[in-house]
Each structure stands twice: as structure tokens, then as C-alpha cells.
Design a protein that fits this description.
By secondary structure, the chain is α+β, with helices and mostly antiparallel strands. About 25% of the residues lie in helices and about 15% in strands. The chain has 4 helices and 2 strands, in the order H-E-E-H-H-H. It has a two-stranded antiparallel ribbon with strand order 1-2. The longest helix has 9 residues. The mean pLDDT is about 80.
């Protein structure tokens, strides 16, 4: 990854990348489709990767996080539509 524009679905809309960009070229724009703010590169990125280093969405294993939070199985294994610890 070169910059935050490549994060895509891992973005939580927190704005940390925009706040810490040393070039101040990351703007947060609301995504009508997702209903969250998404980072938009507004300028020429020098690929310092500060945005990538501070992004909380990168490096998160969401499958493992779901197991920790909801205790157990994945829905794919059981055919349910959400994670439920009592299934």
C-alpha cells in the first residue's frame, strides 16, 4: 500500500490519517453508499506512509476480533446471517 486511498473496506472513518498527514492532503468526505466518512487524497501524495502507519483498520484481523467479541463460531460455518454466541 502506498497511501490511505488503498485501504478501502478496512476504513472505519475515524479521520486519524487526515489529522496526522504531514502534507495535510487527506480530506474526509462522507460516503453516501456506506454512511461513513472516507479519506480522499486531495493533492500530490509523497508516499511517506504516515497514513498507513496510523490507520487502525490496517492490521486488524476482523475474523479473530469477531471470535473474541462474539465468542465462537463464524456464520459461514453455521449458515446464519450474523455472529451470535448462542447458536
Amino acid at each position: 500500500m502506498k497511501n490511505i486511498s488503498e485501504v478501502k473496506d478496512l476504513c472505519t472513518g475515524c479521520g486519524t490519517c487526515a489529522a496526522l498527514c504531514p502534507q495535510n492532503i487527506i480530506k474526509m468526505d462522507i460516503s453516501q453508499k456506506k454512511g461513513i466518512y472516507e479519506p480522499i487524497i486531495d493533492g500530490e501524495c509523497n508516499e511517506c506512509m504516515t497514513c498507513i502507519k496510523v490507520c487502525p483498520g490496517i492490521g486488524v484481523d476482523f475474523k479473530e476480533l469477531n471470535k473474541i467479541i462474539f465468542g465462537g463460531h463464524t456464520c459461514q460455518a453455521h449458515g446464519c446471517s450474523a455472529y451470535w454466541p448462542w447458536h
